[in-house]
């Protein structure tokens, strides 16, 4: 992918030496090459428990021999995108605390001399990992390359060797040389060989081009793409994987046939969002068919399924065999300018990894932060059955709320008073609705929710809220993340995000979980049915001056049936 994020050095003066002993919590030693002392001004908006590189601008995650690995695109020379990108490499035992290793891949050969771009890790027979990645060659053409660990017995996989056969795949006829990238994780074909998909733009439109191989070195292109969308542009970072029809456990292609009936997910990154569609896959015909017929819906309505309806892109999943779950990673870029990134010395981060599975209805995916993040919880506060009257605000925490994990659920004694909308609900644009009906607009049943990273006088805050509407014969639940008052800074993106939530408020409570970490707000509506991530830069609501409120700006009372808040400790990212 072309535009992944970057990250920078921690606050203050940092000196990195040849050997670092990581905390006993990790239980291993990591070596680093010499790094010159770097001075970076203190950054109070740099996150404290989200993964980020040690410095500068921020591919394929995996689990191997008891260690989680995260490979990520990184510019070691600055806090902005540069084509000569490398593969950063970090390891963890719990997905939360991370230790950086030396770069896994750097531009060194004619087939990648201008950059080692995105790709994936695949496991071959006997559980041996390999990397497929896009290289920007000496003529700035995008080609696909293979790298293999130098020592399979090393659980840290610190040294990778590039194949002498590289490049193993070059752009086919009819595909532009700069739109052919991001190979997926491989899966076994019915002939005993391997299959991968590569993103790009073809005569079929945006597509996941299908390739096969018997030996993982020599590849042939299938006649038709695995999936395509004529109305879409160039596809980046495609992902293709199975999910179980019943239960939240994950599954991969190798054991999918042993766990019962599965559905398949086809995902692509385009237009600054990560879209997915659910469907069936017939290996013998090498064909994926979307349940929705049209597949990706790019019109802005609720029909287009996305992982996240906020700032979230270039995501990648992997199957965690140790916990029998599928994990989703996503990249979050900055909302300020290129000049701001250079000044502060860092840009971009990863969301908290999310467990992902198919909903009981089979209509969408569910996401939830991995359970390991709960190890960072401290100082628990809770309340129950609290009425939140119309047009009222309630302070939840008097102390600092710059790093918190909050879970709240709401009930509605006056649901029948919800406002009516004349338009058919599936023709409504939820983001436009959230922009017009922001947190300050008085409604009936809503807006209600949380004000996070709020100043004491509420002049600065980010609102995550719900609004219940009546559309013909059904209730519609709108979820919004309103950044319009998130910062007094100029030149910052303050987009208001929105999406519908597939829930019937007559029979279910509406729940919200929000993770706040200084400048990122991750929100999960209805137990993970709808997710919205925001990047904000408060100027007043920082550190000890950040507050948390519950609010109801509707005319009708709502009831907080349960509210739980934990302050979050820092993760160890070294």
What labels describe this entry?
Tachylectin-2, Chain A, 45% strand, disordered N terminus, mainly beta, 7-stranded mixed beta sheet, 6-stranded antiparallel beta sheet, 2 domains
Characterise the protein shown here.
The chain has 574 residues and is mostly beta strands. It has 2 domains: 56-369, Tachylectin-2, Chain A (5 Propeller), CATH 2.115.10.20; 377-568, Exo-inulinase, domain 1 (Jelly Rolls), CATH 2.60.120.560. It contains 2 helices and 42 strands. The longest helix is centred in the middle third of the chain and has 7 residues, at 338-344. Residues 50-369 form the Glycosyl hydrolase family 32 N-terminal domain.
Strand and helix layout:
Layout: E1 12-16, E2 19-21, E3 29-31, E4 35-40, E5 56-57, E6 61-64, E7 67-74, E8 86-92, E9 99-100, E10 116-124, E11 128-136, E12 142-149, E13 160-162, E14 180-181, E15 187-188, E16 194-202, E17 205-213, E18 219-221, E19 227-229, E20 236-244, E21 262-270, E22 273-282, E23 287-290, E24 313-320, E25 325-332, H1 338-344, E26 346-347, E27 349-350, E28 354-358, E29 365-369, E30 377-388, E31 392-397, E32 403-411, E33 419-421, H2 430-436, E34 448-454, E35 462-471, E36 474-482, E37 497-501, E38 510-517, E39 520-525, E40 530-535, E41 547-552, E42 558-568
Parallel strand pairs: 5-26, 33-35
Antiparallel strand pairs: 1-4, 2-3, 6-7, 7-8, 8-9, 10-11, 11-12, 12-13, 14-16, 15-16, 16-17, 17-18, 17-19, 20-21, 21-22, 22-23, 24-25, 25-27, 25-28, 28-29, 30-42, 31-41, 32-38, 32-42, 34-35, 34-41, 35-36, 36-37, 38-39, 39-40
InterPro entries: ConA-like_dom_sf, Fructan_Metab_Enzymes, Glyco_hydro_32, Glyco_hydro_32_C, Glyco_hydro_32_N, Glyco_hydro_beta-prop_sf
Domain Glycosyl hydrolase family 32 C-terminal: 372-567
Family: Belongs to the glycosyl hydrolase 32 family.
